Amino acid sequence: MRSVLRRVRLTHKIAAIGAAGVLGLVVVGVVYFIETRLQESY
Length: 42
Description:
The chain has one helix at residues 2-40. The model has no long low-confidence stretch (mean pLDDT 88). It has 42 residues and is mainly α. The protein has one domain (1-42).
């Protein structure tokens, strides 16, 4: 029973790290898009 709970916790940690990575990529993409749009106006 404890090994099942430990495995689930590890899975949640891995999922959280993956979600943070994806969120970081989205933030970088949004910043790049905004900067590109601002440079087009000049």
